[in-house]
Amino acid sequence: KTAEVNIIPIGDYTPIFTYEITLFDSLGDANSDGIVDAVDASFILQTYADLSTGEEVSFDDEKTKIYDVNRDTFVNANDAGYILTHYSLSSTGGTPVWEEIVPELA
Question: Percentage of the chain surpassing pLDDT 90?
Fold first, then answer.
């Protein structure tokens, strides 16, 4: 889901700047099953282990945006930890909010 926001000065019709905003409602859902759970955290940990041992791991920019939960440009155990926190909140009746779980997103 993407939206484009144009900044247009009053009395003008030409944008002076354009922002593209993308909503990733699948953040943390590594296996794309519609649920953020321990399976996703396990997938992230396996991916991190593969990367750490020099195995070739390939995923596109969209997958990186899903896997890199804290937006530090690395897919690692920190991302898996945030996914597990999200899962523990949702599985105990809570309403997880990424911005409350991940300080970098606040």
Answer: 82
Average pLDDT score over the chain: 93
CA proximity to 41, closest of 93, 94, 101, 95: 101
What is the number of residues in the chain? 106
What's the rounded Cα separation, in Å, for the pair 23 and 25? 6
Answer whether 20's CB lies under 8 Å from 4's CB.
Answer: yes
Q: Which of 74, 83, 10, 69 is nearest to 41 (CA)?
A: 83
pTM: 0.79
Name residue 18's beta-bridge partners.
6
List C-alpha distances in Å: 35 to 25, 68, 83: 11, 16, 11
> Read out DSSP for 14-47?
S-SEEEEEE--TTTT-TT-SS--SHHHHHHHHHH
| DSSP-derived 3-state class of residue 63 | helix
pLDDT of 55 > 80? The answer is: yes
